[in-house]
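Private note to self, pasted from the team thread so I don't lose it. Backbone tokens:
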């Protein structure tokens, strides 16, 4: 079996579903079920013996040692992290704990397990670290997209913690020989995306007639990838990526934030018209994110050249599927907007609105 960490989060749960749709190898899913983890995402696997869920923390070394000893996974796919830049600005401590100390604990547990293996099993073992393009920092408008050799220049507590974890993973390969692969991916979107991030936040706010908050001038650029394309890329890297290598994953879909928001409004105008007028009337420019990176773009030629991976979705097809998913899953949307979610919205947006007035 494979051990997946963070498999109840947005990308992790899509990965677990995708993995078990593409084959029968069981998944041991370790997730602490923070605010971002949601077992509802995995409801379709209820009663499926191929999915073993463990509620636990990647910082818990005793638990990790027990899980490796009992289940002897042939690979680890490490998604678990604190993932939201705005939360890292309000409270960086959790990011250092999970992203740095948690990755360290997992590397040590994986290394101890790997040291018990021999021959073919030892050579075939993989530790796949799932990381982000944000470790490379910010691009100017005319700069070439991030390649795998771009210098690390993280600018937020989130990206600094992910960069630190990437460095640990690299060092565990060079020093101890642990067979690691790292992938650095651009912005994902799709089903089960928690509505603290731009795309799902805009969809759920627009449906509720609430303001659509755009930081700064709305001209920051991100490279968007449909989440199932990220899952297929991780499968490709896990299957055939070379140990010690990193692979950049992206959608070749650079868009400004304002373009994204206008596209979502137009789709909602078509699929769920609002008698009060176009959803675009709700667009509200608010105070910028501190240290806001201007542009991310991924050069995904290495993964295409070496592993033959390319995204299957265009932005138009992926965003339409995504908006439709949110329209068809109103119960999921209502449930995730619980009391704790409302507290976060107040923390992140109330001061912004005041400053923008
Ligand atoms: P997410 O916040 O939706 O999910 C994170 C999951 O990790 C949750 O299920 C949470 O409960 C779990 N978790 C958090 N702390 C834990 C701990 N200490 N022990 C065990 N589980 C813990 O995140 P996501 O958007 O699905 O991102 C997954 C990974 O992909 C992260 O490593 C992130 O850095 C990376 N990534 C995300 C994106 C993106 O656009 N979302 C892009 C590139 C890379
Ligand atoms: O690039 C990969 C990264 O993408 C991942 O590593 C992160 O885990 C993931 O959260 C994402 O980070 P971003 O900061 O780019 O995503 P977010 O959805 O938070 O913001 C996207 C853009 O939209 C960014 O320029 C900030 C802006 N924004 C965001 C929110 C939440 C707004 O204008 N308004 C908002 O309310």
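Design output:
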């Amino acid at each position: 079996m494979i051990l997946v960490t963070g498999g109840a989060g947005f990308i992790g749960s899509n990965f677990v579903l995708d993995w078990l749709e593409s084959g029968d190898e069981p998944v041991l899913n370790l997730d602490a079920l923070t605010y971002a983890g949601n077992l509802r995402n995995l409801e379709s696997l209820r009663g499926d013996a191929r999915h073993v869920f463990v509620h636990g923390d990647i910082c818990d070394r005793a638990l990790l040692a027990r899980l490796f000893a009992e289940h002897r996974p042939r690979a680890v796919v490490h998604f678990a992290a604190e993932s939201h830049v705005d939360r890292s600005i309000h409270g960086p401590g959790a990011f250092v704990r999970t992203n740095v100390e948690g990755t360290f604990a997992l590397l040590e547990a994986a290394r101890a397990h790997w040291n018990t293996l021999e021959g073919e099993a030892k050579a075939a073992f993989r530790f796949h670290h799932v990381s982000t393009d944000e470790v490379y920092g910010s691009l100017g408008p005319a700069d070439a997209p991030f390649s795998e050799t771009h210098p690390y220049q993280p600018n937020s507590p989130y990206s600094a913690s992910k960069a630190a974890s990437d460095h640990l993973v690299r060092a565990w390969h060079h020093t101890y020989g642990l067979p690691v692969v790292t992938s650095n991916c651009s912005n994902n979107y799709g089903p089960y995306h928690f509505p603290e991030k731009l795309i799902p936040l805009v969809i759920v706010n627009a449906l509720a007639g609430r303001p659509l908050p755009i930081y700064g001038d709305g001209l920051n650029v991100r490279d968007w990838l449909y989440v199932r394309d990220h899952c297929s890329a991780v499968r490709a890297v896990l299957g055939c990526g070379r140990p010690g290598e990193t692979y950049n994953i992206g959608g070749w879909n650079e868009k400004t934030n304002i373009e994204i928001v206008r596209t979502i409004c137009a789709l909602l105008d078509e699929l769920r018209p609002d008698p009060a007028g176009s959803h675009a009337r709700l667009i509200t420019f608010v105070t910028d994110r501190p240290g806001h990176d201007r542009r991310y773009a991924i050069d995904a030629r290495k993964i295409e050249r070496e592993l033959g991976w390319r995204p299957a979705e265009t932005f138009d097809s992926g965003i339409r599927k995504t908006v439709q998913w949110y329209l068809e899953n109103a119960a999921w949307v209502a449930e995730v907007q619980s009391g704790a979610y409302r507290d976060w919205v107040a923390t992140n947006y109330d001061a912004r609105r005041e400053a923008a007035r």
